[in-house]
Specification:
- About 80% of the residues lie in helices and about 0% in strands.
- By secondary structure, it is mainly α.
- The chain has one domain (about 20-460).
- Helix 3 crosses helix 9.
- The protein is globular, with a radius of gyration of 22 Å.
- The chain starts with 20 loop residues before the first helix and ends in a 10-residue tail after the last helix.
């Protein structure tokens, strides 16, 4: 009687689909949360430097530019959500060949999309800044920052694509190491390029953008090299068939496009909020406070929540692929509990130390301080809603339900805040507190709808390409 053939050991971490759920979620979440916090600190450093050197107008310029840039970059990155859905499902099923093929096709598609985005973004920059209602002094500082980011965005696209693939495959530590390296390099470059050093002139907001694109490109090239050398859980090779596989590419967009449209909707809503802020009596001061309070300080909550969203997506997708839908649901619930704890801690600091937090950015102008402190009070409450919304969004997207988050976003992040501000502006002069309240109500609506949709459980029946 012949002995059975030895089973081939899976290259993937099976603890995500077997054993205790809580430790598995934490194992996925903490590296990404840490990376995102450190990456957020890099943004804080940028704003602190330009705030002290150039004033709150430079803070407003970077804040407005990022809001615009994210509209395009989030849509470009939409296929990465489709990639994550397919990778997590195939990892759960133990199919390494399909995992590698999916990542290869995502890489091909990302490069093709960049070839379209870069020239569009460069030439559309003046119009985009006008649409955001940027004041003349803000527009002058924002123009070089935005154009540099658009032109050399390939590094950031590659970074997002590769790290998303690795996390979906269950490896969150490698993206953490890559992200921390990129952040440290970015901070060093920004300190040099924003302020100037020796023969290098002070480049201000353009220096901030150059630091970002150089750091992201260098780290992305290194990560791609590691994949091609077979040193990571996902493996690419130049000997693979590099022709487009339209079945996989269609699946990337099938799951990714709703997320891309969702990202556009959210960021267009953000740009429209900037237009409302730009219509205020103290528009530049309010834009500066918004850039510091919402774009930077609130990111301590949103970026950790994005990490939890990725963990929830991976744990849900892999367990659904492994045939464990109940475990998928348990994983998302566990991730949400971690998010609530983070939101409580950060929100408490907003209430207790608002002046100190704003002072880090050189926001000593009395008008900026008053507006900023008011905003932080609203955001301390909003943090609970957004962390739950993002975590359960991860659960939906990871299982392949990317359309529901899109519809929820249109209702909560566009219709609620933009509609509220529009109605108030028709009735009377808009005040900063009106806009801050609209943000909170939008997050609250998104939270309620997303949690309810996930609990319906219709994601259990979604299938992917075979």
């Amino acid at each position: 009687m012949s002995e059975p053939a030895p089973t081939r050991k899976s290259p993937f971490d099976r603890s995500l689909v077997e054993g205790p759920v809580g430790p598995a979620v934490w194992k996925l979440a903490w590296p990404t949360m840490l990376q995102n916090v450190i990456a957020g600190l890099q943004g804080l450093v940028d704003h602190i430097l330009v705030g002290h050197l150039l004033g709150y107008t430079a803070n407003a310029a970077i804040g407005v530019s990022w809001q615009i840039f994210l509209v395009v970059i989030v849509f470009m990155a939409s296929l990465f959500t489709g990639q994550a859905v397919l990778v997590a499902r195939y990892v759960g099923a133990g199919d390494a060949d399909r995992v590698n093929k999916t990542v290869q096709q995502a890489l091909i598609t990302a490069v093709a999309m960049y070839a379209v985005m870069a020239p569009f973004g460069y030439f559309a920059t003046p119009w985009l800044l006008d649409f955001a209602n940027a004041s003349p002094e803000v527009r002058e500082l924002a123009m070089p920052f935005l154009r540099v980011n658009f032109t050399f965005s390939i590094g950031m696209l590659m970074f997002f694509m590769l790290t998303t693939a690795l996390r979906a495959a269950g490896d969150s530590r490698t993206p953490m190491r890559l992200g921390v390296t990129m952040t440290i390099l970015n901070v060093v470059l920004n300190v040099i390029l924003i302020r100037g050093l020796g023969p290098i002139p002070a480049l201000g907001t353009m220096g901030s953008a150059l630091g970002t694109v150089i750091a992201s490109s260098a780290v992305s090239l290194f990560a791609l090299y590691q994949l091609l050398k077979g040193r990571l859980v996902i493996k690419l090779s130049r000997h693979m068939d590099w022709r487009p596989d339209w079945v996989i590419i269609r699946s990337l967009f099938r799951f990714g496009l709703p997320t891309g449209v969702q990202g556009i909707a959210m960021n267009v809503a953000g740009v429209m909020l900037l237009r409302f802020i730009g219509s205020l009596e103290q528009s530049a001061e309010a834009q500066g406070a918004y850039a510091i309070g919402y774009t930077e300080l609130f990111s301590l909550i949103t970026w950790t929540s994005v990490g939890l969203m990725g963990a929830a997506a991976t744990i849900a997708g892999q367990n659904l692929g492994a045939g464990h839908p109940e475990r998928a649901m348990q994983g998302v619930h566990a991730a949400s509990r971690i998010g609530i704890g983070v939101a409580a801690g950060v929100g408490l600091s907003f209430i207790l130390f608002p002046e100190a937090l704003l002072g880090l950015f050189g926001a000593t102008d009395p008008a900026v301080t008053v507006i900023g402190e008011s905003l932080l009070q609203y955001l301390a409450i909003s943090g609970f809603f957004i962390t739950l919304a993002l975590t359960y969004t991860g659960g939906l997207q990871g299982t392949g339900d990317t359309r529901s988050p899109l519809l929820i976003t249109l209702a909560s992040q566009v219709a609620v805040p933009i509609g509220m501000c529009t109605v108030i502006q028709m009735m009377r002069q808009l005040q900063p507190g009106d806009i801050w309240l609209a943000i909170v109500l939008g997050h609250f609506t998104r939270c309620i709808l997303t949690v309810a949709r996930f609990r319906q459980g219709k994601w259990r029946t979604i299938t992917v390409v075979h």
